[in-house]
Write the structure tokens for this entry.
Amino acid sequence: MENSQLELILINISGQDHPGVTSALSEILAKYNAAILDIGQADIHHTLSLGILIRTEATVSGNIMKELLFKASELNVNIRFTPVSISEYEDWVGRQGKNRWIITLLGRRLTARQIANVTAEISAQGMNIDAIQRLTGRMPLNEEQPLSKSCVELSVRGTPDDVHAMQARFMQLAQEDEFDISMQEDTLYRRCRRLICFDMDSTLIETEVIDELAIRAGVGDKVKEITERAMRGEIDFCESFRERVALLKGLDVSVMDEIARNLPITEGVDRMMQVLKRAGYKTAILSGGFTYFGNYLKQKFGFDYVYANELEIVDGRLTGRYVGDIVDGRRKAELLRLLAQVENVNIAQTIAVGDGANDLPMLSTAGLGIAFHAKPKVKANDEQSISTIGLDGVLYFLGFKDSFITENA
């Protein structure tokens, strides 16, 4: 068949959605052996938007359009036909080889201003949005709902003029407009994440356990000040760890059980862990805190691995010393690599989540590093950040939809 005998027609259907629309229209196309070159459909508030690009013989295109018009009138939907030239189509096909990026916007609520700013940067970088989908459930009208979530995922084609400048601009917008954003290249590895490692203190739990121990030991202010300096990256983690542990000397171990039973769990941990386990992810706690509390969380939520620091205990009291090597930032990155080898996954298939300066090596080593409610130094060095909602926000950065989460609960 010569190109001169071919017609390419873009068919756009819109109107009130109801069962059978796509079936009825495609049946007409099948009757005339039309080839479907592309098809896409969306439904927003029961309103259908359906696009079909067909290739057909010029001798039957008129009959196809006539029958589709009659059927659209019968179904009470609008239909529009747009001719597409061979050169336009070939140019469109040629663009399919361009890189694809997934940009995820996340917050308690998303506004038109946030979306406008992000999409303006996408356009400025010479890229094009080819699909948009909402990952969260339908938003309630009650704006007072405290734990609401809104997430939109953009599929973007092209190569940024300056990917680092684009990432930096996104992080700036997220901070200014109070939302979270992730930009990931849509590679095979992004679709096949298998191992996710978490910091514990101020990530899985909303406290620093060593501060809780220090309060019981009567040295809370001293230890908290050292902790904050370490998390900001102002002093070496190992040095700060030795100083803080020494201040706990003489504390009765029974205090550890009382603290463990009352740990303030971060919003979304339970929901996140249920989904990750059902989806087959391996999960690990890599913490500069203590194994006692890591093991408590392992038992409570089903983590697969725990690596943390071990406090020395003699006659039921802390000695102010520790056992073994300190799990600092360098060690966390080493453990991440080790677990990837043990689980036989590529490092690009790993995820790390943390908040402090000692998490930076782990975050930069993982295929996807996510700064969670992080200190300024960590945010400044990481490309993905969650600051507006709970830890289950990680699920949206991995592409999970609320419909999947609900249906598989």
